[in-house]
Design brief:
- It is a single chain.
- By secondary structure, this protein is an alpha/beta fold.
- It contains eleven helices and eight strands.
- Strands 1-2-3-4-5-6-7-8 form an eight-stranded parallel barrel, surrounded by five helices.
- Helix 1 links the parallel strand 1 and strand 2.
- Helix 4 packs across helix 5.
- The longest helix has 15 residues.
- Bound molecules: cytidine-5'-monophosphate (C5P).
Amino acid sequence: MTLDPRERLIVALDVASVDEAQALVARLGASVGFYKIDQLGFAAGGLAFGRTLVDAGNQVFIDMKLHDIGNTVERGVESIARLGATFLTVHAYPQTMHAAVEARAGSKLRLLAVTVLTSYDDADLAAAGYDFTVPELVAERAAQARDIGIDGLVCSAEEAIRLRSVIRPSMVLVTPGIRPAGAAAGDQKRVMTPAAAIRAGADYLVIGRPIVAAADPKAAAEAIVADIAAAHHN
Ligand code: C5P
């Protein structure tokens, strides 16, 4: 996929209020053009803010992780499509994915499936009643997402290497857990640098704290874009 390095960076707007999000977006200026809004942001008026970001020419990723009865999923997907979002997450259950694919028809919205939450290990899956290991369930759900017509997956950089061979070439891999060399990992257990993640097959990187909590967020974002660009040159 030919994307400008800057277009591959998605900044997670993990802040406490719309005011803070607005201030951060203003500081980042033209260095960033793609933002992710999550659960906390929705409660704080983040969806309306998402619309203003779209109106200002940005791309928006709504990380809603939808999973409900088909009719409710359809209504949710339709409203996010109307907002003009580029990406929306759904859990990778076949019924949910089918409903979502049907509901986004005719819009520019692209659906990303969450296969298995990264906080889950094999014991968590067993406790939830699954007879699969995490890698088995990730592979199974990735194949289902591919067959149902989902546009991409959220996955770790390590999973990206394996999943490339499972998915359609047109599907995108969107990867959190990114840390520039020397940055604090925080609660992320497995991290990769931006360049390493791109080389591993990620198309888009979702990055929060290394930018949001930086003393100079714009400089941090520019350094990450430079690292992404470097991945294409060697
Ligand atoms: O601050 P940090 O760069 O770790 O933020 C990563 C972002 O990606 C957060 O918004 C987090 O919720 C999200 N995410 C994640 N791991 C997943 C899915 C989403 O870190 N498996």
